[in-house]
């Protein structure tokens, strides 16, 4: 099946637009949003998105924002909005991973397609990484596509994105800034499931230290472990051992070890991803 290709803007072109965008408010950006701009598409790999498709994607993103108060200040529902938008961006763009890996695609979307929504999501804060696609870990739209791609699982006629609700944005960043993890859906799902385990939630260890240490340990395993050759339950069991190793090592630095009852009792009830 042919996938959709999107317009691309370079970092330099995006920053030129951003110099103007950052001085405007949400209403002005919404009025001035334009699809036309000197831009290029990938030469092969799919069908270039036409104007009608781009308008439909922009409308879907704005409608999602309206469901959470747009254009009024977003308030304290940012996490809920991000999770809802992740599903919209993933499902409505019809984008292949190779296309989603192109930073220029997300630069175009943030600075030309829906700059008003990006401004609304983060105002009054400003961070270039939310607009320019390089890195993607903190890009307003790009990070959500990759989270939905890796953590969403088929469920009936759609996809289940429940795993997105289990970790904070900071924790998800630790997972997805390591592309070898975030770009491998079975591994990402297993890791997020284990990081949401009650052993970590009930631990007196600093959560950020646990997440950072576990993700580093998993990264070191990747060159020596073919995770794609394992099913997700096997990956979960392997990562459970990694979590235990991490908790033990951190405890040796002076922190108490959390209860091991969930380990002794066996694996906890599986997430929907394990039955997929």
Order of helices and strands: EHHEHHHHHHEEHHHHHHHH
How far apart are the termini? Answer: 22 Å
Structural class: mainly alpha
- How many domains would you count in the coordinates? 2
SS field, number of helical segments: 16
Strand order of the largest sheet: 1-2
**Low-pLDDT ranges:** 259-276
Assign an overall shape.
globular
Largest sheet entry: 2 strands, parallel
Q: What is the gyration radius calculated from CA atoms?
A: 20 Å
Could you explain the architecture of this structure?
The chain has 276 residues and is mostly helical. The chain has two domains: 149 residues, no CATH class; 112 residues. The chain has a two-stranded parallel sheet. Strands 3-4 form a two-stranded antiparallel ribbon. α2 packs antiparallel against α7, α9 packs parallel to α13 and α11 packs across α14. The longest helix has 21 residues. It is globular and about 55 Å long. The chain starts with a strand and ends with a helix. The C terminus is likely disordered.
């Amino acid at each position: 099946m042919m996938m959709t290709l999107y317009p691309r803007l370079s970092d330099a072109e995006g920053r030129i637009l951003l110099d103007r965008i950052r001085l405007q408010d949400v209403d002005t950006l919404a009025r001035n949003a334009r699809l036309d701009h000197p831009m290029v598409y990938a030469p092969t790999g799919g069908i270039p998105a036409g104007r009608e498709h781009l308008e439909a994607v922009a409308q879907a993103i704005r409608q999602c924002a309206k469901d959470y108060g747009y254009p009024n200040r977003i308030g304290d529902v940012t996490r809920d909005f991000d999770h809802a938008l992740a599903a919209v961006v993933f499902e409505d763009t019809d984008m292949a991973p190779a296309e989603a890996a192109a930073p220029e695609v997300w630069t175009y979307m943030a600075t030309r397609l829906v700059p008003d929504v990006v401004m609304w999501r983060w105002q009054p804060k400003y961070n270039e990484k939310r607009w320019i696609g390089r890195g993607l870990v903190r890009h307003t739209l790009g990070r959500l596509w990759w989270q939905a791609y890796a953590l969403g699982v088929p469920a009936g006629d759609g996809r289940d994105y429940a795993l997105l609700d289990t970790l904070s944005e900071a924790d998800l960043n630790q997972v997805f800034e390591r592309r070898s993890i975030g770009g491998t859906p079975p591994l990402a799902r297993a890791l997020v499931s284990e990081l949401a385990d009650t052993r970590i939630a009930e631990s007196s260890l600093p959560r950020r230290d646990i997440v950072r240490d576990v993700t580093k340990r998993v990264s070191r395993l990747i060159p020596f472990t073919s995770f794609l050759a394992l099913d997700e339950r096997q990956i979960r069991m392997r990562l459970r051992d990694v979590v235990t190793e991490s908790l033990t090592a951190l405890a040796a630095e002076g922190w108490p070890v959390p209860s091991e009852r969930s380990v002794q009792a066996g694996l906890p009830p599986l997430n929907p991803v394990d039955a997929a």
